[in-house]
Design brief:
single chain, alpha+beta, Aminopeptidase, 9 helices, 27% strand, Bact_Acetyltransf, GNAT_dom, acyltransferase activity, transferring groups other than amino-acyl groups, acyltransferase, transferase
């Protein structure tokens, strides 16, 4: 397809998303087809009547010793798509079929393979196509905008009984974590990962804990106040970790904001949940982010976690993007040809 064709699809897609959710970042334009087809990246196009679709398909590979491999299959196919026309579901179906043909060489029995699409949460018209091809919603990228944050903070302030919202007899202390708190941070973060593993959003691998320890050792050494620890009688019972704008460049294509904060972790020991400790940790975490001058805050949470959506909603977060995934055995992955 021509550059003009691609630009027209992107412009229409951008206008539609801007009306649905103004806080979304403007869609990235596509390069001409011949300039984009290289290696593990390919530009796909499709038409369905008067509807059109363009998508950038990528294949990435993770080594199991890397911490990032905890959050997906080792062989990961992703699609970034733009849609245009009167029937968006049909446009996406046509594009998915084109992508499906590209995945036909994958082993349909390989469990460490997945295909995923991250789609604007408020754009529901194309979703029947995802369901038809076996995609399921797995996680949400949630946003905390200024207005929702102000309303949530006012409501939370009325609930707080002390500076951090904990009862004075709770014997809980909240403080900035130091490098010597490394093993406490690792233990609390691993508890969160093992809990989320139930919902299919992460896989705790043999090397995950060592990789996490290395990451936390490096980030704690920065001493920037982004790791917040809760202790009861001196024992660690909760952890919040946030990322300041200088470390969130990977989020710039998701939200229309210049300075983005990110909540990387919120973990509370199972025996201490339901006592306001998560809220208290996030009150301190939010203060650290807003003190750094963020415009907005993003986070990921598992859709199947029964605690996540109501908790984050009460703190002023709402879905911005939804992550959809399909594994071998679903219609997205063609079955092997039958032997004669």
């Amino acid at each position: 397809m021509t550059t003009r064709w691609l630009a027209a699809v992107t412009d229409t897609h951008a206008r539609r998303l801007r009306e649905l959710d103004p806080i979304l970042a403007a869609p990235r334009p596509f390069e001409p087809l011949e300039e984009t087809t290289r290696g593990d990246t390919q530009l796909l196009t499709a038409t369905a009547g008067r509807s059109r679709a363009a998508g950038l398909a990528r294949t990435s590979h993770q080594r199991p010793i890397e911490f990032a491999s905890c959050f997906g299959a080792l062989r990961h196919h992703s699609l970034y798509a733009h849609l245009d026309g009167p029937d968006l579901a049909e446009a996406l179906r046509a594009l998915l079929e084109t992508w499906r043909e590209r995945l036909a060489t994958d082993d349909p029995t390989e469990i460490e393979t997945a295909a995923s699409i991250t789609w604007p949460s408020r754009d529901t018209a194309p979703l029947p196509a995802l369901a038809q091809y076996g995609f399921s919603p797995t996680a949400v990228i949630a946003v905390r905008g200024a207005a929702a944050a102000a309303a949530a903070d006012i409501a939370d302030a009325g609930r707080a009984q002390t500076t951090e919202g904990l009862h004075p007899e709770s014997n809980v202390r909240i403080r900035v974590a130091e490098p010597e708190d490394l093993e406490s941070a690792v233990s609390l973060h691993m508890e969160l990962l093992r809990f989320d593993e139930q919902f299919g959003t992460c896989t705790v691998r043999a090397a995950t804990e060592d990789a996490l320890r290395a990451n936390l050792a490096s980030s704690l050494a920065r001493g920037d106040g982004t790791h917040i620890l809760a202790e009861r009688y001196g024992k660690p019972v909760g952890l919040a970790i946030v990322s300041l704008p200088e470390h969130t460049g990977w989020l710039t294509g998701l939200v229309a904001a210049d300075r983005i904060g990110y909540v990387a972790c919120l973990s509370v020991r199972a025996t201490f949940r339901g006592q306001g400790l998560g809220r208290a940790l996030m009150r301190v975490a939010h203060r650290r982010l807003y003190d750094s001058g963020v415009d907005t805050i993003l986070l990921h949470h598992a859709l199947a976690n029964p605690h996540s959506t109501p908790f984050w909603c009460a703190l002023g977060y709402r879905p911005l993007w939804t992550q959809w995934a399909a594994r071998p055995g679903t219609p997205m992955f063609p079955p092997p040809p039958r032997r004669p």
